[in-house]
Amino acid sequence: MSGGLPQFAARMNAAPASPVYRIPHPLPLDSGQALEAAQIAYETYGTLAPDKGNAVLVCHALTGDQYLASPHPITGKPGWWERMVGPGKPIDTDRHFVICANVIGSCMGSTGPASLAPDGQPYAMRFPVITIRDMVRGLVALLDGLGIDRLHAVVGGSMGGMQALSLAANWPERAARVLVIASTARHSAQNIAFHEVGRQAIMADPAWAEGEYYAADAKPDNGLAVARMAAHITYLSEAGLTEKFGRRLQDRESKGFGFDAEFQVESYLRYQGSGFTRRFDANSYLYITRAMDYFDIAEEFSEVPGGGKLADAFAGTQARFCIVSFDTDWLYPTSESRHVVHALNAAGAKVSFVELSAPHGHDSFLLEHDQLDRVVKGFVE
Amino acid sequence: MSLRPDLAAIAAHVAPGSRVLDIGCGDGALMAELEAASGCDARGMELDGQLVERCVARGLSVVQGDANLDLADYPDKAFDYAILSQTLQTAARPDRILDELLRVGRRAFVSFPNFAHWRTRAALMFGGRMPVTRALPVSWYETQNIHHVTVEDFRDLAKMKGAAIERAWFFANETEIGATGANWRAEFAVFELSR
User: Fold this and answer.
1) C or N: which end of chain B has fewer Cβ atoms within 10 Å?
2) Distance of CA A185 to CAs A131, A237, A327, B11, B180, Å?
3) Class of domain A6-186+298-380
4) Active site includes A337?
5) ipTM of the assembly?
């Protein structure tokens, strides 16, 4: 924590903080800048084998964190993938040493905009703009620190899947297996558009104050909540929303002809939005969504902006890949996964791909799904 | 686990250590055999997501995809063998699939039910209706076999495509039979092709 997150530190002081790895060198960034004295907060589960060959890195999504299979210190909720990771679970901590680290740019102990810059003040908007590849640079530095040369597997859903692909493309020798769930190799115009709505909501909140709110009484919670509400819609399917809420009213018999949260779906979204502000930093949301919008692996391997063939990013890879999509995910639809699979096929990589059926849209990867469990177990074993 | 006879014939004639693409790989029985017994690098393609899930769960590299569309992404001669078992007759355009097979693989194995087997002929001749036999057990209106093919039809197609027939195997009653009169006697055929 190093005192860099006053608003979170106050809430977290009752909970044991994650171990922190201090990166012993400046972390180079795609922007050309470097992050000095960066640190990575992480959690581990299981035991590292003497030959260090049983390590599985799980990468978290946009608003996720390192509390993969242990309770979240602020919300007290179970780890975000506890149903998937643990003793006897599909990612079995009796066999594997599972690592999950907070990405740089985030706000749960790794260096981000809320952290203190070398001048002792929070970075805020002075924090350099980062990319998915920069996040992975931080993760690779952590692996170096842990002495892990080659992961048994790297696993991620959504933005976590982007990190897994980025690791496979840029550090191909570092992972034997690459599991990418409900993700993409590039952000689409629609993906960028939704993120821009969220960023504008934050920046339109007067309390955002150009990002300099860390010492202020008011935080841009309203803007951040709206950003979360808009994003949350993209994580669900229309059928899922209809099934869960329909047009039902919340705690009332008839319409009120006003603007309270009259519909259940409104109430739900407001709850999601306000709950989110308790555990997430608005500036981190800006930086991480920007990193996702910049994501285009093919472009990284091209001389031309916006150009490149995705297959070139994976040329010569020896890793095994498994790509999973969900039929109701319209945020990162099956077509994006197929695009990745086609590139991997063209590169001659060992790849599996399956589109699973699930009613809940993008969020399906976090929910109960027996088929997903079997695929993950079979692939990671 | 014993393989279906056509798959066993293919498995017995794939050179050890080969790179293999099994198109329409089903539950991955042939792939698993090729990897375990012959040290092959086997990849699969299967349309049915539940079968793909079973393959992945057993550690096989299988892509959910449609042979009619998704073979195009594989580079030329990416595999030593491309295998199409019991799938040709379900393709929208068997001729194009055969082209793709011979493009992505140095050699191809193709197996299919022979529509000219005497039982099928008899059922059509005397019954006057689309045959429902042991080898073709599904009624015409719900069968996936939309392009029935005979041993002789297949030989013609291979010739038309400039493919050489390297070897052929024929089966009736789950047993291999000789090539003599195969177009009458075989319920299933397996061809090994090159181009």
Assistant:
1) N
2) 13, 22, 18, 36, 54
3) alpha beta
4) no
5) 0.88
